Amino acid sequence: MESTLIFCETEEMAALPLYATTIGFWEHQTEMERPGGFPDYQLHQVLEGKGELFLKDKRYIVEPGDVFFLFPHVAHAYAPVSGEWMLSWVSFNGREAGSLLTYAGIRESGTGRLNALPLLEPLHRMLELSHGNTLEINLERSKLMYALMLELKLQLSAPAGGQDELERMKPVLQHIEHNLHRPLTLKELAETASISPQYLCRLFQRTLHERPVAYINKQRINRSKQLMFSGREKKIYEIAGQAGFENVGYFCAVFKRITGMRPDEFKQLHGLDGRRL
């Protein structure tokens, strides 16, 4: 593939939740310094060679298998440190760009490691599209940008030490799944992983970005939705109990906080029998 730079039409695309602004591939990336940052989000994938990235007085070495993300207007610089430094990139924007990056686990400018080395498939397909700026081509780029965000969710490795922490969490999450119907204490969950309750709370924050009780409540609300479907004749207090809530009032409060509606409203909305408490 030869070096290429594609400028995408943005005026009409700006109404979309996510759209590409530039797409490119450099056989040899040269030094780049932007004290004022760049107006859009950027994703760079390193394909060959080695380079250095400077962010907030920190220096990162990036090589094949690495990606680096730059948020809008964040000062940065990057340069090759090997003879050849091959990069592919896409810059993008849209009202949902930040949310989709957060979903993929990216909350600020920085680096990441991919589970596989080949060029990310949606980015590859964007590079193979015509360089034209017809509505059809730009809409296809927007679809591929969305696919790229989902691909990142799957392909980004956990940070150093993160994979071990995820493995340590597996028995805890399985224990929760199998015991949602009854009360669960922090001490009991910690014992399934042979760790202290305090350390378990830290693991939840680092791996799932929420407290254990918040995670359990979300799983219980999902279970209650399944129970509403499979047991349409059940009353709300019965569903609450079978989903692990000892207090029906607390269940209704948690259900509304998570879904934005009361349990009876949810049942009516989905045609699952609108009988109230």
Could you please describe the fold and organization of this structure?
It is a single chain. By secondary structure, the chain is α+β, with helices and mostly antiparallel strands. It has ten helices and ten strands. Strands 1-2-9-4-7-10 form a six-stranded antiparallel β-sheet, with helices on one face. Strands 3-8-5-6 form a four-stranded antiparallel β-sheet, with no helix packed on it. β5 and β6 form a beta hairpin. The longest helix is centred in the middle third of the chain and has 21 residues. It starts with a strand and ends in an 8-residue tail after the last helix. The mean pLDDT is 91.
Summarize the structure.
It contains ten helices and ten strands. With 277 residues, the chain is of the alpha+beta class. Strands 1-2-9-4-7-10 form a six-stranded antiparallel β-sheet, covered by helices on one side.
